[in-house]
Structure formats: C-alpha cells, structure tokens
Amino acid sequence: MAKNRQFTIGWICPLPLEKEAARLVLDEEYPQEEVQYQNAYYLGGRIGKHQVVIGVQRRIGLSQAAILAEKMRAGFPNIRYFLLVGIAGGVPRYGPAGATSEIVLGDVVVSSPRGNHGGVLQYDKGAWEGEGRLNFRGHTNGVPGDLMAAVNNFRAEGSSQTNITEVLEQMRLRLDNDRQHQYDDPGPGRDRLFKDIYEHQGTELDDCRVCCDADYVESRADRGSGATRQVDKPSVHFGNIASSNQLQISAIERNRVQQEHDVICFEMEAAGVMDEYPCVVVRGICDYADSHKNKGWQNYAAATAAAYAKGLLAMIPTVDATCSAQSAEQSSSQHSANITNMTFGNNTGGIQARDFHGNVQFGRC
C-alpha cells in the first residue's frame, strides 16, 4: 500500500483499447507488480510531474465506471482527481443557426458547463409522465472548479498549444513494427456522415462502404470549411456530454437529445463517476452516434483523447500525495455544495437556477 499512496491522478478507461493508448502517453511506466490492489493489477506511471494510475473497466456502463472509481480510490487513497478518457459518439454539428460548429471523426470533446448543465448529464434518468414524456432528472455534479480552471487555461492557450500532433507522433515511435500504423489518422475519405433518415443497411459487422448507399453520405467537403482538418490536427470541443446505460445508435434520437439538452457527444460511463468524484471527461469521437457505427476510427479516437489528456495534466498543479486524500475530500464536499437545483413553479413552466461554482444561470425547465 505504501507505493500505492504516491498516485494522485486516477485515469479511467472504459475499454482495453483506451488503456493501450493511455500507456503510450506515459513518460515513465512502473513495474506492474508495484501497482496492484486486491489481486488486480493497474497501470502506473508518470506523466510530467504527476503520478498516474490507470484502470480499465470490466464491462461498459455507468455502474461499472462507478465501481472502478471506488476501487481505485480505496486502493490508491491519495488520488485527488480522476480523468475519464476514451471514445464516444459525436453530434455532427451544434450551436445556434449561423454559428454552428462541426464535429468530425477524430475530434476531441471535453466536459464543460453549458446552459443548464455542468458538463455531464444522464439523459435517460427521470420519471415517465403522461403521453410517454420523460420528466428529466439526470443532472450530475459538474467539473470541479480547480479542474475547470485547468481546462479553461489549456483552452486559452489555443489549438497550437495542445500538442496533440506532437504527442501522437511520440506515441507512434513507441510502437513495434507490426503496429506502426495502429494510430494513423484514417483521413477524410473514411469519415462518412450519413443523412439522418438513412439507416445502416447491413448487420453491425458489415462495412458501410459495402452495404450502404453513398448517395446519402455527407463528406467533409460537403459539410464546408468547418469540417476541414489537416492530418493529426483534430479540433477540441467543449460542452455537455450525454451519458446513459443505453448505446446511442439512432440519428433521430441523437438529434432530439441534442436539441433538448444541448449536448455534443454520447457515452456510457461519465455519469457514474461525476456525482461521487472530482472528474473531467475527455472523449475522442469515433462515430456519429447513429446506426452506421464502425470500429475503423476507434484506435485513432482513443489516441487523440489520450494525447489531449496528457496536455491537460500539464495545466494541473501537482499536489503533495501525503495531503491529497484530505484535499480530495474537501474538494468533493465543496463541489457538491456548489451545485444546487432550485425549481420555481411546475416542472414544465418554472424557472430553474443552477449554481456552477458561483455562476448562476437561469433557463426554462
């Protein structure tokens, strides 16, 4: 347990392929036998000045993410912050008319407060009411103030300072010859956004290039300059992340949730962690949360997320491991106290106020 106390950053990976990408951004990797708890091995190492322990979930889902976070905090008691880093399905475009932003495959999404939400929401949580309407009650705690400050400081540096391109190159240099192209950018020709009304025509194992009609595809060129990316230069987006235990594979449902809750990507873990632990979520976009899912972008999306997370850690001040656990408890309690819900009137027509670390925002419920 003595060596376990050195770790102050917990890094959660829902999938093994995300753990492999995380391994490649470590500046130093520690022997496996030195990083274990309750007969389970974790991946431990150093990124910059931070001591980082990386765990992978046994299965996907909110409860599994919560279980892993709980075990990691118990086994590595000086963890102060968690990063949840992996892949997700993205909303192709978001924002007001005339000022929309385009998300393309390989881009990165970071949980950040937007509108009435604190960065992550469980969109399938609530109470079913008349006419099949779900009265939404899936608010989660937002990103803690000190972590949010790091995100904002990193964001203020601009895309030229995120170093994603350089980190991707460093990751590839660590691969053996058989895996040299594992984290290559698949390129715009492999980025196919289908019209919302057009469902996947084959099985989940069938490649869209074989079974789906290309006439329904919007290429990056069709989507305009906002969807243009140079090789290994993904854009980073900041906003609300939709989380649930349900795999999102419907373009129509994706659009509905996006319009109702102002989200920009979908995943299945973050809501299980955010309410209990100080955490920021970083997701690489591997599909468009529709029926045309494929695995062709998963490795690259995992790599871009890991590369961004490494840069973000450089913006987070190091903490003394001997006092980190106490600081984490204080941060968690303050974090919970800083986020409140107050509803005036009924749920459909009242005014809702949410306090995200001192910023009060009002909107219709």
From TrEMBL:
One of its GO terms (molecular function) is catalytic activity. GO terms for biological process: nucleoside metabolic process. It comes from the Eukaryota. This is Purine and uridine phosphorylase.
